[in-house]
Amino acid sequence: MKLSDVWFTALSESESGQMISVYGRDELKEFMESGKYRERVEITWKYEGDKRGLPDEALAEKMELVEEILRKAMEKKDKLAILTGVYTGDGEKVWVFYTRTVRVFGERLNEALASFELLPISIYTELDPEWEEYQDMYEMKEWAVD
Rounded to whole angstroms, how far apart are CA atoms 146 and 132? Predict the structure, then answer.
């Protein structure tokens, strides 16, 4: 299976009315249908946002670095996990991965982020063999912004 690097950006709105930027990955049908990636991992980083609910520039850069390190750790070597979507706004950033195993994902996450001071992240996992979260997010593609 070849992992694409094709993404789309869409806008959504939080329950509080703030704008959420949705960055979704395209061309993942093979991974979804393989049945190997049955567990979803959501990594949430809450922050003090500006009046639009977005992180300041320095924090946004740090978050991008964390994302880059996590993608490399999870995807490059053996495709343990696939980053499928990123949500930013309303005072939080959420990375959504689908993984083959949560246990190994956790070990690799700790290794990948070991060089950082303790980050204000929380981790949620759920069995999602049908990729329901991804499919819900993917429906936003029709409203993608250029």
Answer: 25
In the DSSP assignment, the letter for residue 65 is H
Query: Which stretches does DSSP call E strand in 1-146?
Result: 7-13, 19-25, 39-46, 81-89, 92-99, 121-127
H/E stretch holding 69 reads helix 57-71
Q: What would the two tokens of residue 26 be?
A: 């395209």
DSSP 101: -
- Residues 82-132: tens digit of each pLDDT: 999 999 999 999 999 999 999 999 999 999 999 999 999 999 999 999 999
CA distance 144 to 8: 6
Query: Which residue has tokens 């053996």?
Result: 78
User: What's the token pair of residue 95?
Assistant: 């990375």
Cα–Cα distance, 27 to 1 (Å, whole number):
11
Distance CA 70, CA 87 (A): 15
Q: How many other CB atoms are there within 10 angstroms of residue 68's CB atom?
A: 10
In tens, the pLDDT along 125-135 reads 999 999 999 99
